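Hi Q.,

Before the meeting this afternoon, I wanted you to have the thiamine diphosphate prediction in hand. No need to reply - just skim if you have a minute. The sequence and ligand are here:
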Amino acid sequence: MTDMQETVVFQRPETLEDTYTNYCPGCTHGTIHRLIAEVIDELGIRERTIGVAPVGCSVFIYNYQNVDFAVAAHGRAPAMATGIKRVQPDKVVFTYQGDGDLAAIGTNEILHAASRGENITVIFVNNATYGMTGGQMAPTTLPGQKTTSSPSGRDVEIQGWPMRVAELLAPLPGVSYSVRRSIHDPRHINNAKKAIRTAFRAQLDGMGLALVEILSACPTNWHLTPVAALEWLAKHMLPYYPVGDYKISEGLQ
Amino acid sequence: MTKQLWKGNEAVAEAAIRAGCEAYFGYPITPQTELLEYMSWRMPQVGRVFLQAESEVGAINMVYGAACAGRRVMSSSSSPGVSLMMEGLSYIAASDVPAVLVNVMRGGPGLGNIHPAQSDYFQAVKFGGHGDYHPIVLAPASVQEAIELTALSFDLAEKYRHVVIEVLDGSIGQMMEPAEMPEMQPVRLERPAWALTGATERPKNVISSIRIDSEGLEAHNLHLQDKLAHIRGCEVRYKEYWLDDADLVLVAYGTAGRIALSAIRQARAEGLRVGLLRPVTLYPFPTERLARLAKQAQAFLVVEMSAGQMLEDVRLAVEGRAPVRFYGRMGGAVPMPDEIFEVVRGLCYALRPPKPSGNGHHPARRPQPEDPGPQGAD
Ligand SMILES: Cc1ncc(C[n+]2csc(CCOP(=O)(O)OP(=O)(O)O)c2C)c(N)n1
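Predicted structure with the ligand bound:
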């Protein structure tokens, strides 16, 4: 036996709780939770970070992250985050929201938080469906996509067009950062993490609302295996929701 | 301290600031807007947070956020805006965080009008949001009382970690009266242990209204019900006038209570045995006091600026032991003392028909107990 030197190459971030997951196999909410936890660790802000959870599959994000958390009403996280941040501007406040939460019931709250330039970070998870309620049509559901409430596929003549949130919010002066990332392969995961870090940095620098939209897989409601779901995301979501930077304020480059 | 002329809405705003309110979030709506406008300059002047929200939905969720951070926080609105806040109030009540809301009630339903009304009693007292809860509901009848109850609202909200709604009707919000403002209280700097202030040298705090298993949610509901039972035991407040010998007991709150008192003075001058119970807390309701009065009085008359909402609570308290009559105006109409007096006289004569005497009209004059004095002085 030779002397062996053990080097830690991978470990659980302090911000990530050591617990079992409620998410379905292949769901990428968990990956995104981990990226946020890594960024919070790396920035050394765990003890002054307050998260605001949405209503949706990720309502229990507070079980997975070791920071203070509030759970908002459906869609109201940006308003709640506004209240938390305005009374303690020295804290780091982020919302974590699904596409039903942010882009349907909560459009008013996100739009005005963005317009006011609330100094918060928004992690927006776009899985093209309402996961928690069992796969109904979301504002982000693709044209032709079948869901339990658009059984013959989304007909844009009737149900309108899917909403591109990162592009929509980017032009607002109160928004410091608005980008879209994806989570379907390691390269994209790494880029998503970098964007999350920038979105927190924007807040630390007091630059206004920073949003990262992340394309995420929902194998259960897409009726696909975990691997096939990632492929479906790349094939169908990326063309309509291009990964890209829609706003990067000066100083964040 | 000397009295100054204060408009109700502005008096409530200043009273909140003096009670240490650290943040205000609201949205304009008549007849409440002066409260928001006053806050918009006064809060920054004293280094506190004012933000005009995008809607009442936004405002109440900002309140929810600031309350989670352990701050004294409030919003104000009027009836249609308060309807929009019901979701948020249900979440706040479920989360055991303190928050204060002022509803300067106006005529409804729908857009209704901007005149004073009391038609949001059910919404406030019977919980307009979903789930089993009641807010604490306070109802002042003068500008002075509105000042005092505003300070009390924050204390009760914090004591019970609960929602407190102060219902003014539009006339108290809009009216100017001489009133005395309390001294400025220092803002409380230490934060409650449960507040979301960042997990520095302590385990994380989570404030949530979700309890996924029925056992857990039932246990939480039992806790909320215990809290309400405690509130019912300790926080009932009311004012009474001439009740000792009253055949007829009027029950009225806020502006209606004040007008009823004028009518009663008129009636007492005619020798009629009438008194007033004016609830100051609408939740908890003075049920026990009314139940005791039901053994002594011959009849009750509820006066409201609504179709009869508190009426139901009075009937529940009286439990059929005496007839409970109602006189109300709606849609922003405010009853005149004479109107109420006529109803009172009719009821009193029905209870004790006047004996034929000199003029054949008035009952025998008896010595009357002393006038309890002007409103709010007791
Ligand atoms: C006011 C209100 N309306 C509807 C619901 C039901 N509901 C719960 S989660 C959800 C959709 C969540 O979808 P999304 O935001 O896309 O998140 P996901 O579950 O896909 O992560 C809905 C409609 C609710 N809880 N509250």
